[in-house]
Backbone:
């Protein structure tokens, strides 16, 4: 898992400037909830979804390992 | 775990999809507003379904050419995963449509929406595949009949989800040309997340399928050894 996180960390760092420098035009102001991202707690949603994703993926990795073990035992 | 790299790629792409999908800026659209971000999730389900069904039909042809039951296991598991992706695509589409179409379209327009009907027919054809498989006990016969059926089911996908919705009046975007691949529809910002998202979700589907295949192989070891 450590290898996975070390792969993700630089990616997140790369993306941060992108988020900060988002250009806003008038129609976007009108129709798109920009404030949601700054003070509407959207980061909470991202975190929640990430937790679910991490949980599911860890489960999948564990399942993968278990099946690998079974395959070795049967062979 | 055999061949780890694509599983790591899958995890990285899915994380990127969630972070980028929620936080990057998107084009402002009058009806969709922020729900345009569903492109990274809803549309990817359908892309994933199509790719998994394609894998399924490839293995069906391989089975028919070699009569090797291994390919039958590949075919059925790819088809099942494709069905799951299709159902998820349909479910997310229902939610998305109910918050965007209902303000601008009448119920009649929504009920006769060709894309919904076409996708429903396509999925039902695949449901029938599972029924057909379940109804036969002879393993070789089941494998042969269902492999042929999968080819027909795959052929049905093209009129139902690719051709008919483009010919008829539709509320669903993407009637002209290829919706997600068109340069006018999805701008660069969205594409930066959208293409990785397709690969990420598809790899997740392939990963789960591979686990199911390996489980089936463990279960049916005796059958395959008799080959």
Residues:
């Amino acid at each position: 898992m450590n290898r996975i996180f070390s792969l993700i960390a630089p990616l997140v760092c790369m993306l941060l400037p992108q988020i900060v420098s988002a250009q806003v035009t008038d129609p976007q102001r009108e129709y798109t909830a920009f404030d949601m991202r700054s003070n509407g707690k959207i980061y909470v949603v991202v975190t929640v979804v990430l937790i679910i994703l991490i949980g599911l993926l860890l489960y999948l990795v564990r399942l993968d390992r278990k099946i690998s073990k079974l395959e070795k035992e049967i062979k | 775990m055999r061949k780890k790299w694509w599983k790591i790629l899958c995890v990285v792409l899915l994380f990127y999809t969630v972070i980028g999908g929620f936080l990057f800026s998107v084009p402002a659209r009058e009806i969709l507003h922020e729900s345009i971000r569903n492109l990274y999730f809803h549309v990817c389900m359908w892309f994933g379904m199509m790719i998994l069904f394609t894998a399924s039909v490839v293995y069906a042809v391989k089975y028919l050419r070699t009569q090797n039951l291994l390919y039958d296991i590949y075919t059925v598991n790819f088809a099942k995963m494709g069905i799951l992706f299709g159902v998820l695509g349909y479910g997310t589409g229902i939610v998305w449509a109910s918050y965007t179409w209902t303000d601008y379209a009448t119920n009649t327009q929504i009920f006769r929406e060709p894309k919904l009907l076409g996708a429903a027919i396509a999925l039902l054809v695949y449901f029938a595949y599972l029924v057909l498989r379940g109804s036969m006990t002879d393993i070789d016969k089941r494998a042969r009949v269902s492999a042929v059926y999968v080819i027909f089911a795959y052929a049905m996908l093209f009129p139902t989800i690719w051709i008919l919705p483009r010919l008829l009046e539709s509320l669903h975007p993407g009637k002209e040309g290829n919706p997600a691949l068109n340069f006018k529809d999805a701008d660069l910002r969205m594409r930066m997340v959208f293409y990785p998202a397709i690969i990420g979700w598809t790899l997740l589907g392939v990963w789960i399928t591979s686990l199911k295949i390996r489980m089936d192989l463990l279960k049916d070891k005796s059958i395959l050894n008799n080959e």
Remarks:
- Helices of chain B lie at 5-23, 42-66, 69-100, 107-111, 114-134, 139-167, 188-219, 221-225.
- The radius of gyration of chain B is 19 Å.
- Chain B touches chain A at residues 1-2, 7-8, 11-12, 14-16, 18-20, 22-30, 33-34, 207-208, 211, 214-215, 218, 221 (CB under 8 Å).
